[in-house]
Specification:
Blueprint: H1 2-24, E1 30-35, E2 41-49, E3 52-60, E4 67-74, E5 77-85, E6 92-100, E7 107-114, E8 120-126
Antiparallel strand pairs: 1-2, 2-3, 3-6, 4-5, 4-7, 7-8
Length: 127
């Protein structure tokens, strides 16, 4: 009986941890994920926001204090470039930027480069 209770509790805990991530995505959002050139991972979310598209890039490196150069491209044109530093507790960074929602499909591309290690992340989404 105790083993059944432990299995059930583990399942409930896993569901509780996964549920909040699904709540952040809403209808119309495009979410893509991938791996970088070393051990880091990325997530790119593009969300319609009135006459704009909110782009959100997250890079998770699991190392605090690393500086990344980030460029956001919209339909082939560089819209933004900036630097972000990974922060505690997860060793990740998140950046949000708005781009104009143009007619037809919008292509969002993000390139992030770790200044210290040279690791690169390339993210792409169409919305």
């Amino acid at each position: 009986m105790r083993k059944t209770t432990k299995v059930a509790m583990t399942g409930l805990l896993a569901m509780a941890l996964l549920a909040p991530t699904a709540a952040f995505a809403k209808e119309g959002d495009v979410v893509k994920t991938g791996t970088c050139s070393a051990a880091s991972t990325w997530k790119l979310k593009a969300s319609p926001e009135n006459s704009s598209i909110e782009t959100e890039i997250e890079v998770d490196q699991n190392v605090v204090g690393q500086v990344w150069k980030v460029k956001v491209f919209h339909n082939g044109t560089r819209e933004y470039r900036f630097r972000k530093t990974t922060v505690a507790p997860s060793g990740s960074f998140t950046a949000r930027r708005l781009v104009t929602d143009e007619a037809g499909k919008d292509r969002i591309r993000v390139r992030a480069v770790n200044i210290a290690t040279g690791e690169t992340c390339g993210a792409f989404a169409s919305i």
